[in-house]
Amino acid sequence: MTAAAGASKQGIGARVQRKEDARFLHGRGNYVTDMLLPGQREVAFLRSPIAHGRIVGIKKPAGLENAVFTRADLTGLNPIIAQSTIPGYKASEHPPLASAKVTYVGEPVAFAIAATRAEAEDMLEAVDLELEDLPPLVDAHAARADPSVRVHEAWPDNLFVTLGVDSEYEVRARGADIVVEREVTLSRQCMVPLEGKAILAYWDERYDQLMVYASTQVPHILRVGFAQVLGLGEEHVRVISPDVGGGFGYKVIVGPEDVCVTWLARKFHRPFRWIEDRREHLVAGANARQHHYRLKAHADKTGRLLALDAEVTIDGGAHSVWPFTIGLEPGQAVGNLPGPYDFRGYRCKVHCVATNKPGFMPYRGVARTGVCFAMEQMIDAIARAVGREPWQVRHDNLVPAEAMPYDNVTKKHFDSGDYRKSLLMVRDKIGFEAVRARQAQGESDGRLIGIGFATYCEQSAHGSSVFSTWGLPLIPGYDQATVRLVSGGGLEVRVGVHSHGQGMETTMAQIANSVLGVDIARIQVVHGDTGLTPFSTGTYASRSIVMSGGAVGQACEILIPRFVAIGAHLMQCATSTARYENGKVVGPQRSVTLEEIAAAWYHRPDRLPPDVDRGGLETTIAYKPERDTGAFSYASHAAVVAVDTQLGHVEILDYVIAEDCGTLVNPMVVDGQMLGGATQGLGTAMYEESPYDANGQPLASTFADYLLPGPTEVPAMRIFHMETPSPYTKFGIKGMGEGGAIAPPATLFNAVNDALRPLGVEVTETPLTPRRLLAALERAQR
Ligand code: MCN
Ligand code: SMO
Question: How far is the centre of ligand 1, averaged over its atoms, from the C-alpha of 186 (Å)?
């Protein structure tokens, strides 16, 4: 079934405005920071000032013994250990408070509680923390090479895990005409959602329940985690994720601060809250992206790729997060490096190294931003080596539409699409020939023009079989939805995923509208509350609209025969002569509305026959796609840049995206997702960096040093859609929430390197600051 099914003005495919925007744009959102409960106490954390050291002693200030807490106070907690089933993976505990040693700057070692955050911070000033320095591990290559100093002393080395694959590499490489080698690097960065992490917990005496309000993408996972850590039955835990100001992967885990706050609530039976501030986020939150690649590609003389060899080093930081584990990042890197390309020789080794920095977290795109950056630069390098246009070589290597569905060299099952068409589309939309002509002519201001392309595919909504190969302790399977026709004729849609910017209060309603024809103004989407919604692992991996959206569609369909049975009775006609149509049951003579059906069921059951379906006017149903290997959305990006070789400045003159996420539920929402994601990708490419000095001190701890792209940096991107339905998902929908963030670094670096070509120099390290660009130009002149 495709978009045509929802031919209505509000259904699948319609560009309806987001229902949630009324409250967001008028400042009526409700975030954890807005909440105030009687007797609420604020929590502040004392954090390690050094990257690596032994804790010799922690002395609480006199008189504050009951207001300041250290690890020794936290009795009755089970450890948070992100176990993984990946062979050779070493599990590490992520302690709620450090006790024996500290392993990164910002690691929590104590906390204080007070009426205000400021008072709690003052109390921590008086804590006497005695540390004995250990040598900090700051560089992943060095930490791997020399295990004499170790982040986790019980380990023999500093490796979380090494993953490897070799698929016909040697034999395929043998036939090559050319070999190109490159080294590319992505710097460390943070996720920086508008709202940081936040948690408020108290004990609800009436339900005998730990009540948690948390800024999270995954309320049901948090519930599982808190129950495990605190040793509670899950029925004694309820997690509500209210409005959340962005997650981007940062809010899919149970963090040390979360554990401390829930412990307090349980112990003292009163409300406690912690709000992450920006400095805590930038210093101690979590990191992403820092990958290093050594690559060797073998191709024929037309540039057809035959074999690829790669060694990848990921600086995983000190701890593996629960439940996603650090295994996710190397697992995705090894599996996704081959990108959307058709070749058969592949050898790859990924080392995920422990260092004295905050742990890695999945960040929009996860490893795919890194692998796309690496692979797409290789495609351009091959093109240069064989003297063809990069788009041509890219085109010829992309899996052709005729080959779909296609199993690639790492056994990824590409379900559908025309990758080549998306590339040709951006080539044409950006006016490739005209750019080349302009380039040949030269700029009057002396700047160098360049054009760059990148193509990727994004495995979205992947299920159990994929996550189990990444070794996670919690594996997604079915997602559920509850749909209920309420008294009065409105519809309630309950899903276990959470919308924190994706617009799902609108798009889930659009799916229900497509099936049932109910006006979306009368559809209430309930999400983010374990007490009100069916279980789902939550919102991540661009899975929600495929999984929960599929469940919503299916649940709506299940209700139709029930409506028809009641409607037929009200019209006194045979059920077989009645049909459902756009919010009405239509019989031979007349029709009845959903309002009338709801009124009959809820208020006048005395008039209904005994054989009406006892399921009533609601149902909960579990859904997963016919194949759980993922729906692959994809896109090509193209950019034109002007490079100022004097100032090291890059201006983006044009940016075009052609994307395909199968059936579009709401093209306007997809545009928004693409723009937001691509802006984050632009940050990775040009601005964002969290550098560390030789002592492991973070050098970007405020927005003065950590640069984000602002309105003046983001170009007017032009987005075009293709629509190839997935054969495996309901309505043919593919997920796409991460995709925008994957391709910009690759696209922009390819464009800049195209501009720099006459100078015989390439840039290969993110972010492309003026300093990095000028340093590369200097190298070229030597
Ligand atoms: N959509 C659509 N048609 C499609 C595919 C998607 O209309 N064919 C719409 C969906 O209806 C939904 C949105 O696009 O409203 C994203 O859907 P989906 O691809 O299913 O992604 P998820 O809802 O599972 O969101 C998670 C994804 C991830 S993993 C990250 S990271 C990310 C992202 O979403 N974090 C975000 N986008 C974000 N957007 C905002 N504003 N904030 C975040 O934290
Ligand atoms: S990084 Mo997105 O939450 O999978």
Answer: 24
Integer distance in angstroms from the first to the last C-alpha of the chain? Answer: 61
Q: Is 738 in the pocket of ligand 1 (CB under 6 A)?
A: yes
Q: Is the CB of 662 under 6 A from ligand 1?
A: yes
Name the closest-CA residue to atom 38, ligand 1. Answer: 502
Question: pTM for this one?
Answer: 0.97
Instruction: Kindly give, in sequence order, each residue whose CB lies less than 8 Å from that of residue 101, ignoring residues fewer than 6 positions away.
Output: 52, 53, 54, 55, 134
- Between CA 33 and CA 281 the distance in angstroms is 16
Coil, helix or strand for 443? Answer: coil
Ligand 1: centre distance to CA 718 (Å): 19
Short-list 285, 191, 235, 222, CA closest to 474 = 222
Q: How far apart are CA 445 and CA 777, in angstroms?
A: 18
Give mean pLDDT in consecutive 10-residue pieces for the chain, a chain of 782 residues: 55 97 96 97 98 98 97 94 91 92 98 98 98 98 98 97 98 97 98 97 98 98 98 98 98 97 98 98 97 98 98 97 94 97 98 97 97 98 98 98 98 98 98 98 97 98 91 92 96 98 98 98 98 98 98 98 96 97 97 97 91 88 96 98 97 98 98 98 98 98 97 96 98 98 98 97 97 94 78
CA of 250, closest atom in ligand 2: 3
- DSSP string over 214-240: E--S-HHHHHHHHHHHHT--GGGEEEE
